[in-house]
Write a structure and sequence with these properties.
Blueprint (H helix, E strand, L loop, with lengths): L2 H16 L4 H17 L6 H16 L3 H22 L2
Length: 88
């Protein structure tokens, strides 16, 4: 995944974490980036990429704002760590 796409994905997820009303608007933009994240995961990082995808996707799926926040925060924390590790 290109670094520009990494930054875009991180920013979009952060935006919906901060303002859950943006979920409907950002979901179509985030889904292809999540697919790219999983498809381009380097060897040994496939599980982490899949876990990030699951957390962010769960943020879309659940309607309870507390669960959405939890899932998006978990995804964001893992996303930042993931990008730090693969960009070394």
């Amino acid at each position: 995944m290109e670094q520009q796409h990494q930054q875009t994905l991180t920013n979009l997820v952060y935006d919906i974490y901060e303002d859950p009303a943006l979920i409907e608007e950002h979901q179509p933009l985030i889904q292809p980036l999540l697919s790219d994240l999983v498809a381009s995961a380097p060897a040994g990082f496939e599980g982490m990429a899949t876990m990030i995808n699951t957390h962010v996707s769960n943020g879309f799926k659940f309607k309870n704002p507390k669960i959405q926040k939890f899932e998006l925060e978990s995804g964001l924390l893992k996303l930042k760590t993931y990008f730090q590790k693969i960009n070394r």
